[in-house]
Amino acid sequence: MNNLDILLLQGQSPNAGMINLIFFGGIILVFWLFMIRPQAKKQKEQKNFSDELQKGDKVVTASGILGQINKVEDDIVTLEVGTKTFIQVTKDAISKEMTARVYGGEGDSK
Predict the structure, then answer these.
(1) Which of 59, 100, 61 is nearest to 69 (CA)?
(2) Please, are residues 86 and 79 in contact by the beta-carbon 8 Å criterion?
(3) Is the pLDDT of residue 9 over 70?
(4) What are the distances in angstroms from CA 7 to CA 12, 14, 19, 62, 81?
(5) Radius of gyration over alpha carbons of the chain, in Å?
(6) Spatial separation of the C-alpha atoms in residues 80 and 18, rounded to whole Å
(7) What are phi and psi of 83, to 5 degrees?
């Protein structure tokens, strides 16, 4: 008996390892297409949004605080949340998604 006869008697095809490898590769591809790629795109859009913040933009923080940017210094943004009432937050705390939802996609409206 040769190896092929033994595999056939055991109920396995000689290409079972290759089929499993292709199946596993397909699962990884689907995972990348539907999970990793969209998340990386969202992160890139958020970073671009944070880099483009400027004085006068109306924004919403991730915790839901609405305000208008009064000053931008490196990674710190000073928001005017009321008449002569200011708070400082990091750029990362300002949400592109929530700003677009509240201000109708015009997060940088003045």
Answers:
(1) 59
(2) yes
(3) no
(4) 5, 7, 15, 59, 73
(5) 26
(6) 62
(7) -65, 115
57/42 same-domain check: no
Q: For residues 107 and 96, what is the distance between their CA atoms, to the nearest angstrom?
A: 7
For the chain, helix (H) and strand (E) counts, in that order, are 4, 4
Residue 110: inside a domain, yes or no? no
Residues 65 and 37 in one domain: no
pTM of this structure: 0.68
5 vs 91 pLDDT, higher one? 91
Domain count, the chain: 2
3-state class of 110 per DSSP? Answer: coil
**Domain span at 65:** 52-102
Entry field: residues in the chain: 110
Least Cα distance to 90 among 105, 69, 109, 106 occurs for 69
**Which of the four pLDDT bands, split at 50, 70 and 90, describes residue 3?**
low
